[in-house]
Design goal:
Blueprint: E1 9-15, E2 23-33, E3 44-48, E4 51-52, E5 58-60, E6 67-73, E7 85-94
Antiparallel strand pairs: 1-6, 2-3, 2-7, 3-4, 5-6
Organism: Sinosuthora webbiana
Keywords: Disulfide bond, Signal
InterPro entries: ZP-C, ZP-C_dom, ZP_dom
Length: 116
């Protein structure tokens, strides 16, 4: 566990361990839950489909393409659960493959009316 105070800035880093130097990482979706084995019942979205859902969530420039860095301000769930667990989904793509998920950035999906 990592202990922090409320509203303290948390900085996270994910790195890819591969001998292939032509890979890059992208943080797609991160959610928080008070239950380490249930990320569906009570969750808080930090980012979804590469789009920040939390106003304190930020991506930071990585030192290399195979590293992803991001951060957010620490919070707790309303019922004051003692812990908050994170689950993040990252995409691994070919470096400079601009049609890949890693280079699309924020993907917001819009719904159409049935009349359209």
């Amino acid at each position: 566990p990592y202990y922090v105070d409320m509203d303290q800035n948390l900085f996270l880093q994910a790195s890819l361990h591969s001998s292939d130097q032509n890979l890059t990482l992208f943080v797609d979706t991160c959610v928080a839950s008070p239950n380490s084995s249930d990320f569906r019942t009570l969750v808080y979205e930090l980012t979804k489909s590469g789009c920040a859902s939390d106003t304190t969530y930020s991506l930071f420039p990585p030192p290399r393409p195979d590293v992803a860095r991001f951060g957010f301000s620490a919070f707790s769930f309303v019922n004051r659960f003692p812990s908050v667990f994170l689950r993040c989904q990252l995409a691994v793509c070919r470096l400079h493959d601009y049609s890949s998920r890693c280079y699309q950035g924020c993907v917001s999906r819009f719904r159409r009316n049935a009349d359209s």
